[in-house]
Amino acid sequence: MKNYFLKSAMVLLIICGVLSCSAEDKSSASTKELVAETPVDDINKFQAYTQKYTEDTVLTQNHAIGHIGDLFFTHWKDGGTTSLSMQIDGNFNVSWQGGGYNYVGGPGWHFGDINRVIGYNFTEDSGANFITVYGWGYDKNMSVKNPAHLVEYYILQRWSDAYEPSKNGLFGKTFMSNGVEYSTYRTLREEKPSINNTSTFYQYWSKPNQPLSLGEDREIIFADHVKAWADSGWILPDMNNFDASDDPTYQVMAVEVFNPPEDGTASGRVWDATPH
User: Fold this and answer.
1) Which residues in the chain land under pLDDT 50?
2) Is 55 a catalytic residue?
3) For the domain that residue 113 is a member of, what is the CATH number?
4) Residue 1, in any domain of the structure
């Protein structure tokens, strides 16, 4: 439910602003270097996605995207004070202060892959609204009048009582994946900010029976969730394209907070667990 109202200025901010980081950014990371990377899949509209942090870094600005180590990351907020600390090996930490704003960020990949297995271990969570696999699918050839042309999806692992994602949602089915029982839901967002301007689109949810515990290595088999959604007729559009106006169709392990009542932090590690 990320607000993209200010996304029109984001790319300019990343290209022109992040390369000359503020004194606050420089002081908050012991080593940080940003260099240009060979464009991935000929990305033309989103040159910021080709940038690569080659050292551990701390991000405090409102918007930042790029790659660090083998992972892509997104870091976005519409106000407040939140930082994303990223390490080359996939370890990361999100720290936030209480206030009236929305934040979402974390490491992952600049595209979704139905065959991907997402490995993660969260060691700390002091009240994030969502710890979740988060991403988008988009089909530019489908009518914008069909909400299925654009899909925002969540595979929840942990969530707070402040928001119940299944409320007012259409129930799909219950299924097992890698030892966890999930229930699926579909919700509708009408004329809301998205990766493709203000749009009407669907949200697909997979939600465990209860929040999963911290401190364990876990693997999310993405294909199981795509199949479960499809079993109810909820088809994900293309997850590997750069057709949308504001963002590619990325897939990350995200920490999301909105209107946090108090300070908090969440820490973990993400890796690609796909069998090869």
Assistant:
1) 2-43
2) no
3) 2.60.120.180
4) no
